[in-house]
Every structure is written in C-alpha cells, then in structure tokens.
Queue: 2 jobs
Job 1
Amino acid sequence: MQTGRTVIITGASQGIGATIANSFLDRGYNVVATSRRVTQTSEIKSSEKLVRVDGDIADPATAQRVVDAALAGFGRIDALVNNAGIFVAKPFLDYTLEDYRRLASTNLEGFIHLTQLAVRQMLKQKSGGSIVSITTPLVNHPIAGLNASVAMATKGGIEAMSKNIALEYAKDGIRVNTVAPGVVDTPLHKDNPRDFLNTLSPMPGISAPQEIADAVLFLTEAPRITGEVLNVDGGAHFGKW
Ligand SMILES: NC(=O)c1ccc[n+]([C@@H]2O[C@H](COP(=O)([O-])OP(=O)(O)OC[C@H]3O[C@@H](n4cnc5c(N)ncnc54)[C@H](OP(=O)(O)O)[C@@H]3O)[C@@H](O)[C@H]2O)c1
C-alpha cells in the first residue's frame, strides 16, 4: 500500500531499527533513517523514499539535521520511531558515572531532542501523528541474574515520558506508545550464549526483529491507541515463571 506518510527511525543501521526501516518502506512510507553510521549499512534496502542521516542521537544537532532532512525530502513528519539505544548490564554497585552519562545521553536525551522537534512539527501540521519508542519489560519486571538497574532508569524514563506526552497531546491527535521487546535476535546479543537467552521468557525461544517491527507498525497506524506499552516478549512481563 502506498501512502504519502513520512516516518523517522533512529538506530536504523542494524538489528531492530533496520528491520523497522525496511517494514515501513515496504508499506510505502517515506523513511528518514538515522544512526551514527547509517549511510554505511547495507541492511536497509535502497529506495527513492529513503533518506539517511548520520549522527550521534545524543547530540541535539543530530535531531535538527534529521528533521531538516525529513522536511527537505518529504515536506512533513507523520511518525517517529525512537529505537536507538544502548544496554549496559552490571550489578548496581559496579555502575560508573560514565556508564550513567552514556546511557542517559543516548537513551533519554536522544529521545527528548528528537521527540520535541517531531511533536513541534506535528502540531504545525495539525493532522496528528505517532511516536513509538522501544523499551523493555525489564523496566517493571527485572529478571534475577540480569542486573540492569541504571539502564532501566533510562528505559523507564522513556516509558514515563511517553505516557505523560501521550496525555499532553491527546487532544492534538498525537499518539505516543512504546513497544517492550523481550530478547530479540540482533547484534546486541552477539556475545550472549543462546542457551541463557532462551531462559529469559516463559515461552521458549527469542524474538525475530520482524516481530518488533510488526508491533511498531501496528501502533503507528492504530487510530485510537495511545499511552500503551505493547510487550512482545514471550510472556516475560509476567515477572515470574
Ligand atoms: N535486542 C534485544 O533483545 C532488545 C530487547 C529489548 C529492547 N531492545 C531495544 O531495542 C533497540 C534496538 O536494539 P537492537 O537489539 O537492534 O540493538 P543493536 O543491534 O545494538 O542496534 C542499536 C542501533 O542503535 C544505534 N545507536 C547506538 N548508539 C547510538 C548513538 N549514540 N547515536 C545514534 N545511534 C545509535 C546503532 O547504530 P550506529 O552504531 O550506526 O550508531 C544501531 O543501529 C534498543 O533501544 C534496545 O535497547 C533490544
């Protein structure tokens, strides 16, 4: 199906983000894909509906360049997918201030810079919009042995902001949701043993990136869903099994 809608996707060079970018292209969207090295990846299919913008999401200047590219290329912004993120797992006592700052600048500040600019543009367009961000069920349901407290402060912050922004702009038709994947088969887990990963949800196995992309597409196009967290995690959000 062809549409004239434009979506911005962060962290699009590999893993979940590249799969999301390809899914939106397949659906006929104009796609602005960004990450530090998105111009170098071959994981996103080439398309005249694709614009790539390299940049560190922690830098506010990246958000401005991404929005400028969307408007120059396609004239509008209908949806944003905040997917760029890093994960640092360690015992609480081992986290350093440097860990915190890296997590906060990439995961939280990256979300704030781009979401502010996207919402501002959506308000100007007066036709609503969608923001979907990627978090994790570990925010509310930690798993024994998978220590990630400071990383969860940032992912939890995204969930909290998403719900608050959802309410703030509901009257403007701007919907704000999150997708919370369990373990997904991406380069993020290249050093983690598969046997261990398989134990992290009550349903055996781990997710393919396409499952997450499908959830993001669903929420982007769901006309009256806002402030929601969609767990795609084989039941990991039950919290005990
Ligand atoms: N895989 C999982 O099991 C899982 C589970 C729950 C949640 N998630 C979340 O899902 C999202 C994607 O995860 P993934 O598994 O696809 O991760 P990944 O394979 O490590 O990919 C991360 C993406 O984020 C980009 N990125 C990282 N730091 C960046 C920065 N400072 N500025 C701009 N882009 C940056 C990377 O691109 P560049 O290197 O080109 O910058 C890459 O495209 C993350 O938010 C992650 O926390 C993943």
Job 2
Amino acid sequence: MKSRINDQLKDKYEAIDQDLDAYLEGLLHSKPINYWDYIQTDALLNLQIQRTVFPDEMVFIIYHQINELLFKMVLVEIDQVAKSKELTVELFTSKLMRISRYFDMLTSSFSIMKDGMDVDQYNKFRATLTPASGFQSAQYRKIEFASTELINLIDKRFRDTIDRNSSYENAFEHLYWQAAGKNYKTGKKSYTLTVFEERYKGEFIRFAQFYSTNNLYSKFKELPKEAREDKELINAMRHFDYTVNIKWVMAHYNTANHYLNIGGKTAEATGGSEWVKYMHPKYQKRIFFPDLWTKQEIEEWGVNI
Ligand code: HEM
C-alpha cells in the first residue's frame, strides 16, 4: 500500500516536472488542519454587516446569505449534469431530486423569514436598502439559464418574436424578468435593473451560451427515447419544475405580502417593480420543462394555489 502511494505520488509530480521530495518536505512542516480553518468559520461569520441598529436586519442578511449558499450548491449539481460524459437515467434522476431537496429547504424555510422578523423593524431597515433587491441575485438567474432553454425564459408576450437566430443581446432584452425593471411603453430601465446589467450582463451571456445546449432540459431531450419515458425521471423533472417555479415563488410572494401589504395597502418594493402582479406564478408562467406538462396543467399554472 505504502509503495503504491509513493509510486502514484512520483507519477503525479513527474508528470508536471516537479520534485516529489520538495512537496514531501512541505508536508513535513505543514500544520494539521482544524475545523475552523477548513470551513473558514471566522471569515464566514464576519460577512454580516448591518446598515442599521435593528437586530432583525441581521436575520435578514443571514437568511439571504444562506439562500445564496444553497443557490451555489444547486449550480454545482447542475454543472455536474451539464459536463457528464455518460449521463445515465439514474444519475440524472438523483441529481434532480437533490436539487429539488435544496429548493424544498428554500421553500419551507421561507416561513422562518415570513414570521421571523418584526414587520415594523423590517419596514424601517428596508428603507436603507433601496434600490437593492433580491431581484439582483445573479445566482438565481444562473439557475434559470442552466435549467432550461432560453426561449422558456422569454417574456410570454415576446416569445413569437424570438427564435434560434435571434442574438443573445436581443433575447436578453426580452427575458421575463426585464418586466420588473423596464417600462415597456418608454423602454426606460430602472436603476436597479441598469446596475444589475452593468455588473452581470457579460457574464450572463457567456453563461447562457454554454448552457444553451447544456441546460437540464436539453440534456433530457438528448437521452435515448427509453430514458425519456422513464417514470421516475419524468417525476423528478416535474417535481423540480413545480418546486422552483410554483412552490418557491409562492413562498416568496406570500412573504412579500406579509411585509409589504399592510391593511390591504401595498407598499412599493425596494427594487421598484409592480410586484403584486409581477411575482405571482400565474402571470409569469415560468415553466422549465413545458413538454412534461399537459396543456391544461400549463393553462392552470399557479392558478389554484
Ligand atoms: C422579507 C423578505 C423578502 C421580501 C419582502 C422580498 C420581496 C421581493 C419583491 C417585492 C421583489 C420584486 C422585485 C422588486 O421590486 O424588488 C423581489 C424579487 C426577488 N427576490 Fe425577494 N423578497 C424577500 C426575500 C428574498 C430572499 C430571501 C431571496 C433569496 C435570495 C429573494 C430573492 C428574490 C429574487 C430572485 C427576486 C426576483 C424574482 C423574479 O424575478 O421573479 N428574496 N423580492
């Protein structure tokens, strides 16, 4: 065993013209690792910087950070499916179910957020956040690009005008979420949307290019017919679609209602969207895998919930 590891180490460093002994000497002096060094707890627990004195602002920041970490886990899973050389039904199904479990966590934990903060405190500290909004979560957008074909993320009103020959620039201008930050009559974009694009548009277009053929839906369509008819896989795909695009969206919407709809009067959101209409799944009809739903299910998407 010992000599086999020695041989493997030798091979590894020889392959990159490095001297194994120098590395072994480094190992001799290196200090043993601790939990806190490995998990980077000190750095992690120093990333919560409040803008106000309200304790519930801490809850708000931490919850968003937890969400971003879970989004990162989702992207790691999708990346593995996208880059898998031999995609089996089993691997596909198990990855989808795992991603769904992350979204189950995100959905059920929203009740902690909904009933977790004092409404008065929230409405005071959120004033200091304007014009920032969760709308500017880049990872959330990446999950969408990585899950389905771009056409399914285009605003319903413009789908007929976009096809495979449209440029990414043009498609980008008609993504469904432009509606939250764009006045379609004047074409003017909100500050929230403008700065988001300045920061991420280039990255999004590169990301969307890779995923245009490697997204979960395209990967599914590439499977042999028999695999595409696998009940367990179809259920996993539908479960993922439903969890992300109805359950999470509704948990989020209900939370917004809790804080921003007081006594039937809706407050303006920090990102400035017409959120009551924009956020409800029945208006957006975001569906990652449309072929896996019946016509009636699509018509009733988000209606009776
Ligand atoms: C008190 C908690 C929350 C409230 C009241 C809230 C409210 C809102 C509102 C009103 C919008 C519409 C855009 C705007 O005008 O700002 C929005 C968008 C968004 N928020 Fe939240 N949010 C909350 C928590 C979160 C959390 C924890 C996340 C996770 C990162 C998140 C992610 C998003 C995303 C991704 C969008 C864009 C959704 C889309 O385009 O359909 N939000 N939020």
